[in-house]
């Protein structure tokens, strides 16, 4: 401390100038102050190790954050894409309504799509047996993770609709959204007016069932992710209609459409599971057996064919599955059941033969014959290379 007369004061001692200052008189307190002063005058910096550690921590935090938020970002983007696709489709349908183009005017979904293209820009259209050509894949994932083949979406019934919904047609819009569309052939006529919106659509879309993919060939191709159901339900398989349907004794029977089997060679027959022995000639019975197996069905039992005989010969019941049935064959019932039955019956001299799902040996198999005066179940003496015996399948 400097007094007015130029003397310096330190710890009570007075010095005439700085040269008389003796550092031995500096206390610990003053030494600390001096060191702090020196440090304040120095520049400080992070070491390379400190910088690298900091960057590593930032990277880890960023990775964890991205892992949490990226799926949410993708979900938000897809939701917006789906909403946009639904709105665009609805606006196209609004224009159709204004032009009196919505109603029971289309016999097929293809006819509807042909008209739709006047209002919605479409880059590609695919028939329902070639949907994969529009979508870039042949299987999608249901919301539960199970695979479902596009080829199974044949009509609106496969999208949870009734039988009024027609065959499906695939299309791709100009902005890259894939759609599988089914049209309701009994659609009510919509007046040309403004319709109130609810969510992303309105009444103008009430006659369609649509599965749409805003991502197409990019994953995940999964419902409730990049695939949306618009006026539709989760895809499902439907039971094929009965080709031959009848009731005997209070029991309903459902056979597939009758078919002429494609014969198998001995080598082909040996590859079919469930067949005990194979014929060295063309094996029509094995061909019928394999066709039903490929459809997830089977050839009828002797008892089921006997029930058919009871129906065609106007019997209420038949006691034994191998029983003969006598009487007049009701040819009207035969024709009503299947034109294939009646054609085969006529062309074979009033004989109709149907394979049963039982083999007797490599040479013989079971069948039932339907003739004008009776029906006989032959247990063993009909050759498996008989080309005029028809096949039918049972679920």
Order of helices and strands: EEHHHEHEEEEEEEEEEHHHEHHEEE
Return residue spans where pLDDT drops below 50 for at least 5 consecutive residues.
Answer: 1-16
Apparent shape: elongated
Mean pLDDT: 86
Number of helices: 9
Strand content: 15-25%
Q: What strand order characterises the main sheet? A: 3-6-7-10-11
Number of domains: 3
For the record, give the distance between the C-alpha atoms at the N and C termini, rounded to a whole number. 112 Å
Report the major sheet: 5 strands, antiparallel
Pairing-aware structural class of the strands and helices? alpha+beta
Give me the count of strands.
Answer: 17
Overall radius of gyration: 42 Å
Helical residues, percent: 25-40%
Can you tell me about this structure?
The protein has 395 residues and is an alpha+beta fold. It folds into three domains: 8-40, no CATH class; 74-230, no CATH class; 244-378, no CATH class. It is 30% helix and 19% strand. It is built from nine helices and 17 strands. The chain has a five-stranded antiparallel beta sheet with strand order 3-6-7-10-11. Helix 8 (331-337) packs across helix 9 (339-347). It is elongated and about 110 Å long.
């Amino acid at each position: 401390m400097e007094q007015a007369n130029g003397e310096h004061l330190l710890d009570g001692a007075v010095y005439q100038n700085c040269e008389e200052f003796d550092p031995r008189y500096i206390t610990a307190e003053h030494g600390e102050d001096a060191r702090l002063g020196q440090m304040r005058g120095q520049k400080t910096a992070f070491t390379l190790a400190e910088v690298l550690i900091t960057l590593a921590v930032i990277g880890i935090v960023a990775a964890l954050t991205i892992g949490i938020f990226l799926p949410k970002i993708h979900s938000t983007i897809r939701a917006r894409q789906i909403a946009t696709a639904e709105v665009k489709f609805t606006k196209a349908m609004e224009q159709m309504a204004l032009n009196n183009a919505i109603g029971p005017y289309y016999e097929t979904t293809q006819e509807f799509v042909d008209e739709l293209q006047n209002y919605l820009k479409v880059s590609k259209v695919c028939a329902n047996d070639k949907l994969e050509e529009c979508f870039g894949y042949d299987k999608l994932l249901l919301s539960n993770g199970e695979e479902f083949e596009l080829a199974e979406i044949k009509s609106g019934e496969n999208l949870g609709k009734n039988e009024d919904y027609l065959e499906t047609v695939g299309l791709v819009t100009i902005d890259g959204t894939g759609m599988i569309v089914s049209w309701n052939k009994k659609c009510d006529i919509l007046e040309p007016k403004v319709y109130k919106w609810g969510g992303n659509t309105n009444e103008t879309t009430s006659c369609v069932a649509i599965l749409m993919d805003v991502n197409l060939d990019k994953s995940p191709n999964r419902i409730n992710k990049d695939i949306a159901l618009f006026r539709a339900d989760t895809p499902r398989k439907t039971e094929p209609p009965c080709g031959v349907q009848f009731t005997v004794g209070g029991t309903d029977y459902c056979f597939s459409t009758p078919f002429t089997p494609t014969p198998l060679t001995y080598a082909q027959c040996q590859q079919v599971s469930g067949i005990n022995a194979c014929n060295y000639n063309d094996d029509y019975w094995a061909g019928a057996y394999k066709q039903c197996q490929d459809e997830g069905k089977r050839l009828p039992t002797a008892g089921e064919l006997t029930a058919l005989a009871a129906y065609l010969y106007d019997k209420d019941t038949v006691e034994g599955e191998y029983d003969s049935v006598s009487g007049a064959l009701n040819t009207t019932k035969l024709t009503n059941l299947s034109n294939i039955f009646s054609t085969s019956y006529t062309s074979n001299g009033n004989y109709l033969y149907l394979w049963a799902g039982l083999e007797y040996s490599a040479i013989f198999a079971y069948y039932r014959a339907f003739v004008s005066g009776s029906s006989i179940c032959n247990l063993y003496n009909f050759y498996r290379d008989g080309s005029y015996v028809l096949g039918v399948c049972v679920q």
